[in-house]
Amino acid sequence: xxxxxxxxxLEQQIRHDLEIMAYPAQEWVLPCEGAPEPDILNxxxxxxxxxxxxxxxxLARECVPxxxxxxxxxxxREGPWVTFARMDMLRTEKHxxxxxxxxxxxxxxxxxxxxxxxxxxxxxxxxxxxxxxxxLVWYRRIxxxxxxxxxxxxxxxxxxxxxxxLTVERSGMEExxxxxxVIVSTGTEGLGPRAVPEQVATLPKELWxxxxxxxxxxxxxxxxxxxxxxxxxxxxxxxxxxxxGAASAQICFRRADxxxxxxxxxxxxxxxxxxxxxxxxxHRWSYLQHLYSIGQxxxxxxFTKAMSYEKISLHPASPWKRIVLMPDASIRVDxxxxxxxxxxxxxATGNRADLASRPELSSIVGDIATWGERYTPPPxxxxxxxxxxxxxxxxxxxTEKEPGTAPWLxxxxxxxxxxxxxxxxxxxxxxxxxxxxxxxVKGVTRQLFLDGADAMLDEIVTQTHDELTEDVIKSxxx
Length: 478
What we know:
Blueprint: H1 7-20, E1 43-46, H2 50-61, E2 67-70, H3 108-116, H4 118-123, H5 129-143, E3 147-148, E4 151-160, E5 163-170, E6 173-179, E7 182-184, H6 198-201, E8 208-210, E9 224-228, H7 232-243, E10 248-252, H8 270-275, H9 281-294, H10 300-307, E11 312-315, E12 322-325, E13 331-334, E14 339-342, E15 344-347, H11 371-374, H12 384-387, E16 412-414, H13 420-423, H14 433-451, H15 453-462, H16 470-477
Parallel strand pairs: 1-2, 1-7, 2-3, 7-16, 8-15, 9-10, 9-15, 10-11
Antiparallel strand pairs: 4-5, 5-6, 12-13, 13-14
Helix pairs in contact: 2-14, 7-10
């Protein structure tokens, strides 16, 4: 419909959609046998961003009760969208479908058109970043999702082969939660620590930040900003810095030429998105290693905007080889061919693959298999940056470093950036949720079903399940 119908009318349609698409609505998850405590979650979800919320909704559609989402941020600030993200608009196509899990009226497009109409949608190039967060807040509200905010999961540990204990920090207190399965949905940060050059790390923290941090730019007026990195976040940071009044923002990167390719766009089709996890190890490694080797530059709108600023400049072939803090608190950076003077540094350098740095995995990381332990690439494809990625199973579950020593690991599913090598380079992004999410959810429901297999068989075999009662038979016979 071309004219806006309003959110209230859309929400009525959604409630009706949920009602008529409820099949099968029968409860089926059996309680955990021999449970040490009465209150046990069937699934605990670590991270309340878009994947965490969509996981909770998907499990509700599969009639899985007792699911809870834990997020360390206040309500409305989950994920990067209104925290450290700085781009004007999302980098993915506006037509993507993801959190709706097949319900058209739950898409961003439906939400947007209900308020602004079809013509406004047609004019939109891509989804504004802050508006995407508004949509996520609405999505959570209309579906009544069980998100517990201000709750940081700091440990996941096995209690027994079929049960895990989560340690949660909440309001300065520590609480423990038992769960039969866990989905770790921690985004980019879930792969490992932010990559920070050693020389930068020794500088006073008030002189530098990583692009994945919240950065107070209120004092940037007249300052010279040095930015390390060639990806989209480097350009976003430069634009934000100049908008905040910076005298200059100079983007430095070690490559001789700026990355211009983005094969990921070619991979956004149902073949790659749905079936990448079924490829042999060598294929999967080669895909991601190639993407690492060529790098990924900014989207065209981001690049064009950055280059329209006279105060933003690019410096290829400019690795930061030597960094010196000067007496006046300025920072001298030597690239080997050029020397820069900066007042503040921003590192758009991504994250390193190091699961041991993740607090929630501290009790189990020693049991988790990595790609470096499972696969040896040919010499021309060797890449130490990929060795630390977790080697996940077909449902996104962690696998054992030593088979048979940690059977509870098959109950912990990962859909952070660390899943990209096992499930696909786009698995943890918005553009692949349509395919990656059902895989994770199926892994959870499969495990819960297998837990109750013996009891379910006993119920089917030993109990009666009358379709025709004696009263019906007698009535029809008469």
